[in-house]
Specification:
Elements (H helix, E strand, L loop, with lengths): L1 E3 L2 E5 L5 E5 H20 L3 H4 L10 H13 L2 H10 L4 H12 L4 H10 L13 H15 L10 H11 L18 E4 L5 E2 L4 E4 L1 H8 L14 H10 L1
Parallel strand pairs: 4-6
Antiparallel strand pairs: 1-2, 2-3, 4-5
């Protein structure tokens, strides 16, 4: 991925160049947050305490995590991170568990109120929050057997990012997809070199970002090395 003007430019191995502007990424992120708020509003108390695909986090934690970028300033995050010796995962978990004390109706309201906030974290830019809306929606929906999903174009754009050198290591660590071809079965998207892993583009993205639960939805000779890397991470 390269940056030119206000555009993210992705080149897919098929030779197609796919361009999405920063403003469009912000718009998609806003819409996804609103959709997640609608999903959360449809859940009962038991659902809010159900586990998500993020180990140790319930739906309540995930809802809290989704409002964190809009409520916690970078200076505040940085100061708390120093307490955890720069460990980002522990810092995120700290804020998530604190915000999870907020009652569910208020978390939903906060997500709606801040849905249109344009958040651009250091190093990842607007693609970071956008990726979270796609992935975390399904982190909630998959365990609850909900079919709600973001548009397929969002997954295409996210996969372009995940297979690029610019991908955030927190999403796709270096080497996870090396030597593997990722091929979507529900849209014309393919990337990589080596044995193939096939499946819906949603399942490919969930696996690329470390969700072992998505492996059952994938097929192909490249599945074994991918699954081994996910299990070892």
């Amino acid at each position: 991925m390269t940056y030119a003007g206000e555009h993210f430019i992705f080149t897919i191995v098929t030779g197609e160049t796919h361009m999405v502007s920063e403003s469009e990424i912000y718009t998609w992120t806003s819409r996804n947050r609103s959709m997640i708020a609608d999903v959360l509003a449809s859940l009962d108390n038991a659902d809010w305490d159900a586990p998500t695909l993020c180990t140790g986090w319930t739906v309540r934690h995930m809802a809290a995590h989704l409002v964190q970028p809009m409520l916690v300033s970078f200076p505040r995050f940085f100061l708390v991170a120093m307490r955890y010796r720069g460990n980002t995962d522990r810092t995120v978990d700290h804020f998530t568990r604190r915000l999870a004390r907020i009652p569910p109706p208020q978390l939903i309201t906060l997500l709606r109120e801040h849905a249109a906030d344009n958040v651009s974290p250091a190093r990842v830019g607007p693609m970071g929050p956008f990726a979270e809306t796609c992935i975390h929606l399904r982190d909630i929906a998959r365990p609850l057997s909900l079919t709600v999903d973001v548009p397929i174009e969002h997954w295409r754009t996210l996969m372009d990012y995940l297979v690029s050198p610019a991908a955030a290591p927190a999403l796709t660590p270096a080497g996870r997809l090396r030597g593997i071809t990722m091929a979507a079965t529900d849209t014309d998207w393919i990337s990589g070199r080596g044995p193939e892993v096939r499946g819906t583009i949603e399942a490919l993205a969930m696996a690329a970002t470390g969700r072992l639960a998505a492996v059952a939805d994938l097929r192909g000779p490249g599945l074994h090395p991918l699954e081994s890397r996910l299990a070892a991470h």
